[in-house]
Amino acid sequence: MSSSTRAGQVFRLGGPWPGLDPFLFAVHHVDHYPQGSPDMTPAADVSDRPLGQDFGHPSGWNMYHGTTVPGFPAHPHRGFETITVVRRGFVDHADSTGAGARYGGGDVQWVTAGGGVSHSEMFPLLNQDGANDFELYQIWLNLPARNKSAPAEFKMLWNEDIPDVVIGDDTGTARVRVIAGRFGDHDPLAPPANSRAADADSDVAIWLVHLEPGAAIELPAAASAHARRVLYVHGDGARVDIDGTAVESGWGYAPDDGGALTLRAQTASTVLLLQGVPIGEPVAAQGPFVMNTDREIAAAYDDYRRTRFGGWPWPTEAPVYSHDSGRFARHGDGRLERPGSAPDDAPDPVLA
């Protein structure tokens, strides 16, 4: 890593990628799942894996906490938000409000856990004729104390509706996926009502930048002088010059201010940018709960043991939907939503 011509910190990425207030962290899962079976499980022997705790990445893929279908069976959250970006593969969601969804192929699910929600996130292997490549980012965004008891809500940002900004010339093309935060003249889709990003003063931005070799792009300055930024560089052999600092795959960069940044790709690279004005409140975090005090953490565990945050209305801890369910979102009030390109007569989603 070279020294920067601009003040900033370069740091190595470990398991969870460290965040800066208001972001807690981000994780990046890449799994090269094998062919799927008719029941959407791996068509491969898993008898030698520690099912329920399979994070070893043997053969290039994990079962995670799944014991049949890969993924994360029912688990609780309170006090923060999860933003799940699926580049490849699919996720089947179910939660304690009775809501469910199947999304993937560029879709983003934004969950404001607020006062508490239990949900499952399973990864059905829909392709029975070949491999099931899977890539997912999950970003944890903190909530201020005033929103930590808000009603739980999830919102789908469908791939077809998310703004993509393409900038390039004969030296290479850059594409910016605008998940949150205005980029130039491009406005993002709205987050949930009680999201930290719904507060205009938060200056939250989530941009996923894909760079061809030789591409250059200027990321605009943050709107707020108080906003902080962190950039994560990744991809096979990725190497990006960020305002004079060469940052390679597996490294992050945190500039000391929110000014404009110039990215120049030396190789094909992906950069995830997270930005926001710090909340500046105490953080007490334990497992799936992020509150302001240890007493509130204890109360969260007690509430979950007593109520499961509304119960669990599903017949299994790890529900998946039928193979032909398509992409959909069914909300807790029963409203069924599909991407705009889906036909009106698409089959009603049912459990597999």
Concise summary:
With 352 residues, this protein is mainly beta. The protein is 4% helix and 40% strand.
What do you see in this structure?
Residues 1-5 have low confidence and may be disordered. The protein has a 7-stranded antiparallel β-sheet with strand order 1-19-16-21-14-13-12, with no helix packed on it. A 6-stranded antiparallel β-sheet has the order 2-3-10-5-8-11, with no helix packed on it. The protein is globular and about 55 Å long. It has one helix at 294-307, and strands spanning 8-12, 17-18, 23-33, 71-77, 80-88, 90-95, 100-104, 108-112, 117-122, 132-142, 153-157, 164-169, 172-180, 205-211, 216-219, 228-234, 239-242, 245-248, 251-255, 261-265, 269-276, 284-286, 289-291, 328-330, 336-337. It has 2 domains: 23-53 and 66-161 and 297-352, Jelly Rolls, CATH 2.60.120; 164-281, Sandwich (Jelly Rolls). With 352 residues, the protein is mostly beta strands. β12 and β13 (172-180) form a beta hairpin. Helices cover 4% and strands 40% of the residues.
Strand content: 35-45%
Major sheet strand order: 1-19-16-21-14-13-12
N to C succession of SSEs:
EEEEEEEEEEEEEEEEEEEEEEEHEE
Distance between the termini: 49 Å
Tally of distinct domains: 2
Indicate the topology.
Blueprint: E1 8-12, E2 17-18, E3 23-33, E4 71-77, E5 80-88, E6 90-95, E7 100-104, E8 108-112, E9 117-122, E10 132-142, E11 153-157, E12 164-169, E13 172-180, E14 205-211, E15 216-219, E16 228-234, E17 239-242, E18 245-248, E19 251-255, E20 261-265, E21 269-276, E22 284-286, E23 289-291, H1 294-307, E24 328-330, E25 336-337
Antiparallel strand pairs: 1-19, 2-3, 3-10, 4-9, 5-8, 5-10, 6-7, 6-9, 7-24, 8-11, 12-13, 13-14, 14-21, 15-20, 16-19, 16-21, 17-18, 17-20, 22-23, 24-25
